[in-house]
Amino acid sequence: MNISQDLSSLAVTQKTSKGRLYQESNSRTRSEFQRDKDRILHSSAFRRLKHKTQVFVSHEGDHYRTRLTHSLEVSQIARSICKVFNLNEDLAETLSLSHDIGHPPFGHAGEYALSKSMKNYGGFDHNDQAIRILHILEKKYFDFDGLNLLWETIEGLVKHNGPIKSQTPETIDAINSQFDLRLNEYASLEAQIASIADDIAYNNHDLDDGLRAGFFTYDDISSLPLVGKIINKFPSNYSQFEMQRINHEITRKTTSLMINDVINNTLKNIENLKIKNSQDVRICDRQLADFSLDMKNEVKTIKSFLSEKMYNHDKVINMTKNANQIVSSLFDFLEQQDDIFLNSYLGTPFTNNEKPRAISDFISGMTDNYAQSFYTNHVK
Description:
By secondary structure, this protein is an all-alpha fold. The protein contains 18 helices and no strands. Helix content is about 60%, strand content about 0%. Helix 3 (about 65-85) crosses helix 9.
């Protein structure tokens, strides 16, 4: 059965892939990149994203974004952009779906608290944790730990924020020694698109969530140049429509403007820098899939607005304080427990040297609801 695709010379293909760390037979029905996507979708860690905070904790309301819905939205944007360039959509989708898989409960507040608790034990970083989950902690196969993902998938996750030229976290360092990830180079164009799709998604969808929460009004966001231009073209009676209609009109149009800007700017970069193939993408000294300078300024304005009006809102700050309390207390409590108690929850034996990391793995895998419940039942 022929499952190959005719992709652009800029794309990562099965023919050029560096393969898996542990060799496996190819599938008759799926490309290797489709298999990676399916392995993410069937992972326990991916399912838990449903109950992990994006900005609001899950019990605040069913219509606010979670890590899961955010990841799905990133995936849709990344696929749309990849289609224009005839790239490997399966790779971009895999990276989009898994980019937040290492986040602990309660969003960035949970990560800050866990990083503080792990300060003397190698630290905590959600990108490194994503690699731990996908390469070590998911246990589904007899022949290896982790999901045995393709080199290009691991590399794209590791370089979600670009090349790594400073000291690497321990898990990334370990897998790099096994499976040279060429950390000082840029990732594939598919990975770069997944990364910029993340920016597009959270900026636009946080505007929607912030409006729903009442943190700011349509008059407030009319002061933002990009959003203001859109609202100024609305019918004069637009305020008579339901909020969900108005919000959708705003976010779909701002999202579309950002997507088109990325496409046009990426095309220009490819042409100006004479990028001919996927190897040229990697050795280029800059990111190719990116906003134009004008759009970067527009996005910066939106981020500043959200920081002031949403992320530093009293309600969010209170949720952050509560998250810090829960995560820090959980770590301190678990660190004091004996091996019998810990093994009943962690499931895998560990040495004393491994205890803090095992506790960190356990906490970071918790959903918001489970962390709150465990804290209430055992710590509070």
